[in-house]
Amino acid sequence: MKFDFKEEDLIIKPYKQPGPIYIREQTGYFQRIRRYLSWLLMLTFIGLPWIPYQGKQAILFDVAHQQFRIFGTTFLPQDFMVLAGIFMAGAFALFFVTNWLGRVWCGFMCPQTVWMLMFTWVEHRIEGTRNQRIKLDKAPWNLEKARKKIVKHSLWLVISLLTATSFMAYFIPAQTLYSEMFTLQWSGLVSFWVFLFALCTYGNAGFLREKMCTVACPYSRFQSVMFDKDTLLVSYDAQRGEDRGRRKRKDDPKKLGLGDCVDCNLCVEVCPAGIDIRNGLQYECINCGLCIDACDQTMNKFGYQTGLIKYQSERQQGNEKTNPFRLKLIGYASLAVMVIVVMAIWLMQRTPLEVSVIRDRNALYRVNYEGIVENPYTLSVINKTQQDLHYRVSLKGLDGATLTSPSEIKVTAGEMLLVPITVSIDGSLLSSKTQRVTFVVNAMEDASITLEKPSYFYRN
Fold first, then answer.
1. Residue 30: pLDDT band by 50, 70, 90 thresholds?
2. DSSP string for residues in 275-287
3. CA geometry: angle 370, 374, 375, nearest 5 deg
4. How far is the CA of 68 from the CAs of 43, 59, 74, 414, in angstroms?
5. Using alpha carbons only, what angle is made at residue 190 by residues 186 and 194, rounded to the nearest 5 degrees?
6. In angstroms, rounded to a whole number, what is the distance separating the alpha carbons of residues 232 and 53?
7. d(CA 437, CA 396)
8. The pLDDT of residue 31
9. Who has the most CB within 10 Å: 4, 74, 245, 400?
10. DSSP class of residue 16?
């Protein structure tokens, strides 16, 4: 059997050329989508901490007081189930999108990609086009080169500092954080975290760039497990494009024995990961679609049909139909919806009140000279609302018992208060040594906030 191989087909090509990647700025359909999404995500990221609700910051993860405030709801460490549910729903939603559209999250919505391309945009405005940046880096140092580098890195540092400060505004009230910033009153701890996050942003988006996606990010390593023959991926139509080769616009490619690929290399120059999509599917590809915009632009110039590089599945490459209702895709979607529904039900049934009954292990009970049996308890009452509330405690299930406790228990918003109480009953009314008793705690301002907590009453 004889195989017709070209010499270059036997060479294993690296996924990208060594050295730094100089991204060419590109316009087009997918670039517009990403730009609008990037603006939306950045404005949301910066603006959310400034939204007021009931006189307070609507979203605040107050680590110092161990409270997470989301609009009118306060979550405490006891509500860890909510955080677990959010991560589970997010993971299944990401698996669903990945199975459907590949690494489209990485290409359009990942903060690393958004900030990396924003830094590249700044770089392009200061140092010029791709070729100008390459020439500048190769040139010897002079005043002009130093000026451009200083301005670029200064703007990068300003963006990084604003990013870090915006991030910290989710953990420290935004008004306090920014007012202390302008008056230089940040504490050492706040300064440490802001400058650490700023340094991470500056390093990741300015220097590591694609290495975060291709080396550090674990998602790029296991994402292929979620791909199947129906997953839509950015792919090159080799059947139509090969043999690739340069030609003039008026040349007939069929007469030259060439495919539609004019070997302009723009698909490589615009790629944030620096790969050549024409080499086939590579895990480094983030499905950003920039190579599609670049290729379609070239096809239009030559008068060829667009879509030489496009989103398509393996089945579509083989002229088959993609199955939109495959089991894996439906499974991921169902699991995401199920987790969201369970969380919604739990939140609707959630009472913004936490009560624990603590027994004194050294004195379970005591009996006075009149034969009255007393059991001391300590109630731990946590107010999960964002308003100060007054609570009343009552008993249920132990007939004839009296309760000694404060008539009103005031608990401030998000506070945990320990309240000592005593339950007393005539020993002759007790039918056994251990009887069940229920403490009922209800808010005086809101009758719907009530909680029952069972315990036991002991006698000798």
1. very high
2. B-GGG---TT---
3. 170
4. 22, 8, 6, 10
5. 110
6. 42
7. 6
8. 95
9. 74
10. B
